[in-house]
Write a sequence for this structure.
């Protein structure tokens, strides 16, 4: 069996949305009107915290694929001012969101107990205002949302190998700026800054999926206690700590890229470690110099830089059945699945999608019922399913 990233084909039903004349699709997708359509045609559940569970119309998988979005489209009309990461979410909303995450992940693990049969993953990606709104590849909805996905392993095993040079695989160690130049200091910073009790660092040979060889070169942590640990608020606090550490690293690095020998940012989460581990590290400062000098000479390269924190944070089940957390720099075009070496090619095919849709909806309604029972929201009725 060849090891390497896989490319699968996933059918979808074309979305009957008309983009107003003069607007680009990714501009329209940020509008309140698009979110209204998402609710009415694909909405499953909503709660007073404005957390919306919905069926992914342009999905990654027809086995199980759903998302929760923090729908601030009517409360924050400026698309560039909406919360786009966990650290920006009000505590009361985050508590509900964490409980929803826990129930959805628990459902996936219960429904798909064998790691040899199903790849289970959940996580979110940064949707910051880090590119011009009209740039290709800009996230279509600038609001915090996460993904819950299951891929049948047989589908992945039967899939063709993906092109290693596919731009959507740039989070692997061969391309990522952090991994290529600063892998050691990156890991050292996490070790020095974070006080982790539930999460335990894993070596690559334990965290990588045998089939794809991904994730490549990224820091990974085992969730000690497995699914039961997700019921403990301590885990979700540590999940946030990893994100805070990543944000510190990212912002500190690009501050040095932007301005040589710039002072430590005033609002970092871990000032002592930023000062001692990052700003006094020659590899860290040398990498910033290389990027800065290239930005000065290469306008296209400079324009592609994401100056604000851009990340993907993921919970997945490895081959041994352990739950693992990882985090990575995000890049244009990356989907969260590609962190694990799964490239999804979506094709419009209403007939093929329709054959798999009833079973998919049945599973989505099952998990919706569990969320309702836990007082995490009210059902939404659409033309495809009822509100009971």
């Amino acid at each position: 069996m060849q090891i390497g990233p896989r490319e699968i084909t996933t059918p979808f039903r074309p979305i009957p949305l008309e983009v107003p004349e003069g607007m680009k699709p990714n501009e329209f997708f940020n509008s309140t009107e698009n979110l209204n359509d998402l609710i009415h045609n694909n909405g499953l559940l909503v709660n007073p915290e404005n957390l919306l569970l919905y069926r992914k119309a342009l999905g990654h998988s027809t086995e199980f694929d759903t998302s929760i979005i923090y729908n601030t489209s009517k409360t924050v009309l400026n698309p560039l001012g909406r919360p786009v990461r966990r650290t920006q979410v009000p505590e009361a909303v985050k508590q509900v969101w964490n409980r929803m995450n826990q129930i959805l992940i628990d459902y996936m693990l219960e429904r798909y107990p064998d790691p040899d049969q199903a790849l289970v993953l959940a996580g979110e990606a940064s949707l910051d205002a880090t590119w011009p709104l009209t740039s290709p590849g800009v996230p279509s909805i600038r609001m915090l949302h996460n993904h819950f996905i299951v891929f049948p392993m047989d589908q992945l095993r039967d899939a063709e190998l993906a092109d290693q040079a596919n731009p959507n695989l740039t989070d692997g160690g061969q391309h990522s700026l952090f991994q290529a130049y600063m892998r050691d200091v990156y890991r050292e910073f996490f070790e020095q800054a974070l006080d982790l009790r539930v999460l335990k660092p894993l070596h690559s040979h334990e965290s990588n999926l045998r089939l794809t060889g991904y994730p490549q070169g990224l820091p990974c942590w085992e969730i000690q206690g497995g699914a039961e640990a997700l019921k403990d608020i301590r885990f979700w606090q540590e999940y946030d700590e990893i994100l805070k550490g990543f944000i510190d690293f990212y912002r500190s690095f690009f501050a040095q890229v932007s301005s040589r020998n710039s002072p430590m940012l005033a609002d970092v989460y871990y000032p002592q470690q930023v000062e001692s581990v990052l700003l006094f590290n020659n590899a860290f400062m040398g990498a910033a110099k290389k990027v800065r000098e290239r930005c000065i000479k290469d306008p296209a390269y400079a324009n592609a830089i994401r100056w604000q924190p851009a990340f993907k944070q993921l919970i997945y089940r490895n081959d041994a059945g352990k739950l693992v957390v990882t985090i990575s720099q995000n890049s244009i075009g990356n989907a969260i699945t590609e962190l694990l070496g799964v490239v999804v090619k979506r094709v419009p095919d209403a007939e093929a999608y329709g054959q798999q849709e009833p079973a998919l909806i049945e599973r989505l309604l099952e998990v919706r019922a569990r969320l309702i029972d836990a007082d995490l929201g009210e059902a939404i009725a659409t033309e495809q399913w009822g509100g009971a």
About this structure: The chain is about 35% helix and 20% strand. Confidence is low (pLDDT under 50) at residues 171-175. Residues 233-258 form the longest helix (26 residues). The chain has two domains: 1-164+334-388, 171-330.
